[in-house]
């Protein structure tokens, strides 16, 4: 991949994950070229790589679109997350929490005390927390696998916008439970807590999908 193609890939990927490219509108090579100040060739190469990585899909006679997940896709992603993140939480607890992980405790407690906290703030903190668990696990293969899964996880980040406030607050409490199990160096407890958290997230996501079917 050339330097320009790499830049195009990263910029388009970012636009997709922050939802600045609508999933219901065809992606325009010309529009992206003008927006990013890059030629059509690196844009085209980047789109091919984004299709390979599961972020966009090409529909014959309709065009190229941001990939829209199905319920089956959602289940597949969360089942993989349960396995990988369960191992990561187990290892993080067995090896002892990092200072980075411990720094989340006060942040989560403040969120629980402040019912007016914005969804995007909660969402980003949760994303960072899950990444910190992988870092604390101290396993390079797990980190590599997480990097490969990040695009797919990113596509699910639209779902929390449709959660009710109680589910959002429950997510913060679940994160705190995971963290405290890791802090107590309880590998089995940390693994159970993260498995339950992801199971709850999958159930909530499935309910959202059912509303739009």
UniProtKB/TrEMBL annotation:
It comes from the Bacteria. The keyword DNA-binding applies. GO terms for molecular function: DNA binding; DNA-binding transcription factor activity. It holds the Pfam family FCD. Residues 2-69 form the HTH gntR-type domain. Keywords: DNA-binding, Transcription, Transcription regulation. This is DNA-binding GntR family transcriptional regulator.
């Amino acid at each position: 991949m050339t330097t320009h193609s790499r830049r195009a890939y990263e910029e388009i990927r970012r636009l997709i994950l922050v939802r600045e490219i609508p999933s219901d509108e065809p992606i325009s090579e010309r529009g992206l070229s003008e927006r990013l100040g890059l030629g059509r060739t690196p844009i085209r190469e980047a789109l091919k790589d984004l299709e390979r990585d599961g972020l966009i899909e090409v529909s014959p006679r309709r065009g190229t679109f941001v990939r829209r997940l199905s319920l089956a896709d959602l289940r597949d992603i969360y089942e993989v997350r349960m396995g990988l993140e369960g191992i990561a939480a187990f290892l993080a607890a067995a090896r002892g929490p990092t200072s980075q992980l411990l720094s989340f405790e006060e942040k989560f407690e403040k969120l629980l005390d402040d019912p007016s906290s914005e969804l995007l703030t909660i969402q980003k903190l949760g994303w960072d927390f899950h990444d910190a668990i992988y870092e604390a696990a101290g396993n390079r293969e797990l980190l590599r696998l997480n990097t490969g899964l990040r695009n797919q996880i990113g596509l699910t980040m639209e779902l929390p916008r449709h959660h009710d406030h109680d589910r959002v607050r429950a997510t913060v409490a679940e994160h705190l439970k995971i963290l405290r199990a890791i802090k107590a160096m309880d590998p089995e407890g940390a693994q159970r807590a993260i498995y339950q958290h992801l199971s709850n997230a999958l159930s909530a996501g499935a309910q959202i999908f059912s509303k739009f079917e």
